[in-house]
Amino acid sequence: MMQIITRELSRLEREALERHLLTLGDEDRRLRFGVALPDQAIRDYVARIDFEIDAVFGVFDDELQLVAAAHLARCHAHAELGLSVLAAWRGRGVGAALLARSHTHARNWGICRLFMHCLSENAAMMHLARKQGMRVCASNDEADAWLELPPADASSYTSQVLAERVGVFDYALKSQRRAVRRIASALLLKPATA
After folding, report:
1. What is the CATH number of domain 7-189?
2. d(CA 50, CA 157)
3. What is the spatial distance between Cα 133 and Cα 136, in angstroms, rounded to a whole number?
4. What is the distance between the alpha carbons of residues 176 and 193, in angstroms, rounded to a whole number?
5. How far is CA 177 from the centre of its chain?
6. pLDDT tens profile 74-101
7. pTM of the shown model
């Protein structure tokens, strides 16, 4: 099984998050946001994220494209989580990795409850929430999932620091491999001189 490595995004990666969300089709946007948001509404949503208050986590592919993202918004005594995973990356544990990372981060903020809101037809999110031990309450077309978080401890702080360092290291390696591939490709395409 492939290990999913997550990394916290900074405000400097706002464009990568925007590109990721704009890549989602209408149905995926509807499942992520509750309605099929138009492009401008997604741009506005990303522009409003305060990276100093909230946290955004991502999973990058080998070409440094953001293939999944989790927005953890701090709201007084709880934190709300929104997830998106590109179709080609679903079923690999990416959503679970982002949820686990968000859970630890919220816990270390001192938050006592993690909250997710989704359409009740979003079977993947409902399954993920239940699998992670969240209490799901569905009514009509919508569902809420809650997870009571234990207080932060040395283990949760260590886990967060380690996860972030691994994420940064993974991104750096992918960046170097990508640069080597580009250089090799440019050298192979260079015409021979006589």
Report:
1. 3.40.630.30
2. 22
3. 9
4. 29
5. 23
6. 988 899 999 999 999 999 999 999 999 9
7. 0.89
3-state class of 68 per DSSP?
strand
Residue type, 58: G
Give the Cα separation of 90 and 84 in Å (integer): 10
Below-70 pLDDT ranges, the chain? 1-2, 190-194
Q: Dig out the tokens for 105 from the structure.
A: 């981060």
C-alpha pair distances (Å), 57 with each of 164, 167, 181: 10, 10, 26
CA distance 34 to 172: 35
Looking at residue 190, its pLDDT comes to 67
Please give the radius of gyration of the chain, using alpha carbons only, rounded to the nearest integer.
18
pLDDT per position as a tens digit, 141-166 = 888 888 999 999 999 999 999 999 99
Return the residue matching tokens 């040395």: 154
pLDDT of residue 1: 54
Domain ranges for the chain: 7-189
DSSP class per residue in 91-109: TSSHHHHHHHHHHHHHHHH
